[in-house]
Amino acid sequence: MTLKKQPFVKQNLKPKEDTFTVRCNADDRELINWGKKVFDIKSDSKALKALASVGRNVLHGTFSDRFLQYLFKKDRERLTDYKDTSELL
Questions:
Q1: Assigned domain for 42 exists
Q2: Rounded to two decimals, what is the model's pTM?
Q3: DSSP readout, the chain?
Q4: Which domain holds residue 46?
Q5: Residue 37 is assigned to a structural domain of this protein
Q6: pLDDT in tens, 8-52
């Protein structure tokens, strides 16, 4: 009689990480390279995370969440919707 062994099953205690692909143009690549140089980081993904973190801190420190939601609201009235903006200002 031979014993059958169960195959080894790798168990990962960490939750699966979220990964995504980022497509960038020349301007985006220049910004990422600038971030890599300034933060002294070799990895593109770490540079993007650092730039996003700093950008969030600056935006949140400058504007409130409510004002940022207003600025980026898709259905708000914008000055470019009016032909004659002189009467609005």
A1: yes
A2: 0.63
A3: --PPPPPP-----SPPPP-------HHHHHHHHHHHHHHT---HHHHHHHHHHHHHHHHHHHS-HHHHHHHT-TTS--GGG-S--TTT-
A4: 27-73
A5: yes
A6: 777 777 777 888 899 999 999 999 999 999 999 999 999 999 999
